[in-house]
Amino acid sequence: MTYELWDSDTGNCSGVYSTLEAALEVVGSAVRRNGESTLDGLGLLAVTPDGDRHLIAEERDLLPLIGARAAAG
To answer: Are the C-beta atoms of 31 and 38 separated by less than 8 Å?
Structure first.
């Protein structure tokens, strides 16, 4: 399983990560640097080995997932 961050405004994949924790760390770091507006248009997807994609969370729904990461730092 891999994890992808997608920008729905541009339709571009902004990163592929081997763990959920790595993807959430990137999101949390961006929120710490630039604020919650960083999440606008952002989606986090899980990708199965077969290539199926499943939405985990998008935009402000990512906040509970990064809660501790965004507060640290």
So the answer is: yes
Residue 54 backbone phi and psi in degrees, to 5:
-135, 125
Handedness of CA 48, 9, 31, 26 (dihedral sign): positive
| 37-54 pLDDT, tens digit each | 999 999 999 999 999 999
Who's near 45: CB < 8 A, 6+ residues apart? 3, 4, 5, 6, 53, 54, 55, 56
53-72 per-residue burial string, b: 16 or more CB within 10 A, e: under 16: eeebbbeeebeebbeebbee
